Amino acid sequence: MDPAQVEELDGSGNGTGQFTDPWRIGNAGEANALGYFPVPDDPLANTFAMVNDDAPPCDCAMTQVSLRTPMIDLAGVAHAALGCRVYHDGRPFNGQAWIDASTDGNSWTTVKTVAPVLGAWQDVLIDLGTYDNGPLYLRFRYNDASHWASGFAVDDVCVFTRATNDLVLLRATNGDPSINAFSTSARSLTYSFVPV
User: pLDDT tens-digit profile of 145-184?
Assistant: First the structure.
């Protein structure tokens, strides 16, 4: 964790002199204890790592807090990738989240800016091929932009080797999705199969 501790704030936003860990393991009920960080309980009773700006024990300033992995040895690995799930809703002002990578744990490159999505976990897949055959560190970073905010949750982190020919279907439609299927003036349902 970086920083290792953050200062708790009082109701007026003043420091209390009490410090706590910014990241912890919890569940959806704990995340949404005060109603401001509605992480979906999916799957039921799931636990995950989270930085939560407003639930106990922390009503804290969360400017640039991060959770780092230990060194991951990719020696002999080709086509590395990161798969994980994240929850980031950016509410209510301008909370921001990123995933960074490094070869030394000191110099970082942002490999993913996490867009805010309300009410759903996001599945993340990141190509880490530029880090093949070497050491890798990952960092999950959050910034509440010095405002009252919700938080950032991370789950199911997996670094793996992708197949040489990796195919992912992101969206499939049966016809032209820009034309109403019930329009009599234009045919939109023209495909009966998709050649792969």
Answer: 766 668 899 999 999 998 877 676 666 766 666 666 666 6
**Short-list 19, 23, 24, 25, CA closest to 6:** 19
Kindly report, residue by residue over 74-130, the tens digit of the pLDDT.
999 999 999 999 999 988 777 899 999 999 999 999 999 999 999 999 999 999 999
CA distance between the termini of the chain: 45
Identify the burial level of 75 via C-beta atoms within 10 angstroms of its C-beta, where 0-12 means exposed, 13-18 middle and 19 or more buried. exposed
Amino acid type, 30: E
Q: Using an 8 Å Cβ cutoff, are 65 and 22 in contact?
A: yes
Q: Enter the tokens of residue 53.
A: 């700006």
DSSP code per residue over the chain = -BSS-EEEE-TTS-EEEEEE-SEEEEEHHHHTTTSS------STT-EEEEEESSSTT--B--SSEEEE---EE-TT--SEEEEEEEE---TTTT-EEEEEEESSSSS-EEEEEEPP-TTS-EEEEEE-GGGTTSEEEEEEEEE-TTS---EEEEEEEEEEEPPSS--------SS-TTS-TT-SSS-----S----
The span from the CA of 112 to the CA of 124, in Å, is 9
pTM above 0.85, yes or no: no
